[in-house]
Amino acid sequence: MANLRFHIILFLLCTSFLTLISCHCLPENHVTLFIFGDSIFDSGNNNYINTTAQANYQPYGETYIKYPSGRFSDGLLIPDFIAEYAKAPYVLPYLQPGIHDFTYGVNFASSGAGALVETHRELLHPIDLTTQLRFFEDVEKQLMQKLGDAEAKSLLSKAVYLISIGRNDYVVPFYPNSTVLQTYSKEEYVGMVIGNLTVTIKELYEKGGRKFGFLNVERLGCIPFVKRLDQRSNGSCFEEATALAELHNRELSLALQELERQLKGFKYTNFNFYSFLSERINNPSKYGFNEVKMACCGSGQYRGILSCGGRRGVTDYELCENPNEYVFFDAYHLTGKANKQLAELMWSATDPNVTGPHNLRTLINL
Ligand SMILES: *[C@@H]1O[C@H](CO)[C@@H](O)[C@H](O)[C@H]1NC(C)=O
Ligand SMILES: *[C@@H]1O[C@H](CO)[C@@H](O)[C@H](O)[C@H]1NC(C)=O
Ligand SMILES: *[C@@H]1O[C@H](CO)[C@@H](O)[C@H](O)[C@H]1NC(C)=O
Ligand SMILES: *[C@@H]1O[C@H](CO)[C@@H](O)[C@H](O)[C@H]1NC(C)=O
Ligand SMILES: *[C@@H]1O[C@H](CO)[C@@H](O)[C@H](O)[C@H]1NC(C)=O
Question: Which superkingdom does the taxonomy of this entry point to (predicted)?
Fold first, then answer.
């Protein structure tokens, strides 16, 4: 009897040893995050491309990280907080030289990018969503070489794909010389944005992606930068811009429900960025803010000119004393404090009107 037990233990030891040497098995709770989109998520890719959409100078980064990393905020971004909650390392920007380990994922987001390749192409030359997908294919290849096809496929299917896209597509039509709304109806234009996003999601699904996290588009007309684009601005939000965001958000919800029906195993969380921002604009003190109309850093009306740091043509700018009192750090981006509040809700809120059908914590463990 003792002998049999000994043999069983020996057998178990051998098989687990063989498993260890035969695959690069990652621990059960290993979290992989692939990040796509715009400046809401860009942790520094634009530092490595020829663009003026960069934030790698002071006062960006002044609050939490103590150096200007390229994040458009005084503090951390939403994916940074999410990585913290998931007990994973901060996700590195894909273009940062010298990254060899992609098993924790990587960040492809690029400030200025939209779902449409034309968005900011001439003005900022960001890495558009399609190019971000090509970069992802390169990472997929490297993971297959490192882990083998089966293990790489397993990693890609357990990974979470976070995507923040659309706001830039919906700001461009309100630039003074834009002809977008003469060329397309609002419905057509939103249809193109959602169409291109859907194509991206389907390609990621084809490569094994199953778990997705989205932000819908915030109440665009209340952002200082966008308020300034209103020719007749009288201090209130620019409702015509908000209307495009609302149309997008309705179409996005429908598109995601449709994808869930079409694609077996497709699961997602869609964070209601729109109501998140609305809530804080309507009741700032409830959330610990006391300035929601004006940005902390910038110049002009509402500090709505994107001149924070003085490196983008306009050298003069104002900087508030305490970014934690503000929702907007610069004319177009949230403070680290607001980002943290958003990430917390996206991670663990149980109200489907806040984030649904799953929250990220549940999604990761599914
Ligand atoms: C960067 O872009 C600017 C403006 O589009 C262009 O004039 C310049 O030549 C580019 N620089 C490099 C190094 O490609
Ligand atoms: C708009 O067009 C005018 C005339 O063609 C040009 O001078 C101006 O620079 C343009 N403005 C922008 C923001 O592109
Ligand atoms: C994607 O966007 C382009 C414009 O950049 C548009 O012509 C095309 O129809 C869109 N694709 C889909 C599937 O909507
Ligand atoms: C200010 O603009 C808003 C939105 O366009 C409008 O509803 C409101 O009547 C305007 N107020 C004044 C005083 O013009
Ligand atoms: C979610 O929003 C809808 C429509 O605004 C509302 O009817 C419903 O009560 C809300 N649900 C929760 C749980 O707050």
Answer: Eukaryota
